[in-house]
Amino acid sequence: MITTYDPAHARAQMLNKVPAVTLFFWIIKVMATTVGETGADFLIFNLRLGLTYTSLLAGAVLIAALVLQLRTRRYVPWIYWVTVVLISVVGTLITDNLTDNFGVRLEVSTAVFAIALAAVFALWYSKEHTLSIHSIDTRRRELFYWAAILVTFALGTAAGDLVGERWSLGYLVSGLIFAGLIAVVAIAYYVFKLNAVWAFWLAYILTRPLGASFGDLLSQSHKDGGLALGTTGTSLVFVAVIVVLVTYLSITKRDVAVASDRA
């Protein structure tokens, strides 16, 4: 699930549009999922925009970020990670809208998003014969990639809320469950040689509810089972760390990936 940085390969890159899967990738990804959860709550409750207006605003900003991302001809760290953070926010809002505005049960939305993700993967594979992120070097592959990312965030939000809130296990226990599942995937990959593509996507899905659970644990009130640090403080701290890491990667190029046709 983690690839090493090779300067020689970096110089020979073929304009792959996504970063290499390094430890930095997973750290920023988990923090982005946390910001997606706390950031959405900040806009809805702290700024009092409400769920509907927050959804419209976040959706519009995400579209602008995606247009910018699609128009670049290479991987640009700040554009890529801004897009991921915004997709995290929108994925959270999609699930929240289904639950709060339309009364869809979390069991149903989790199942629907799982089916939708399977459909995206099936269509992607039927057209490209690979689900590898090491070869996101065409417009069609990039569109499939971002569609899958959006659905994984919505699925992860629904699954995290289902375990932590509907099943009343709490944020800490929920986070530990998803951390344990990620550990199982890592063991399956490193010890039992689970296919790298499937290992990546399983871990990617599971990091969403992991980050959301710990984001809620940090930000929510004591009566709701959190540490009451607030959505503002939690969001600012995590955004600051993301900015520092993305700046570092922009300078060092340590996450530059090489396009290939590996499955």
From TrEMBL:
Domain of life: Bacteria
Keyword Transmembrane helix carried by entry: yes
Pfam families assigned to the protein according to its UniProt record, in alphabetical order: DUF347
Record carries keyword Heme: no
First and last residue of the signal peptide: none
Protein name: Membrane-anchored protein
InterPro entries: DUF347 (IPR007136)
Organism: Cognatilysobacter lacus
TM helices/strands, residue ranges: 21-45, 51-68, 75-94, 106-124, 144-163, 169-191, 198-215, 227-251
UniProt keyword list: Membrane, Transmembrane, Transmembrane helix
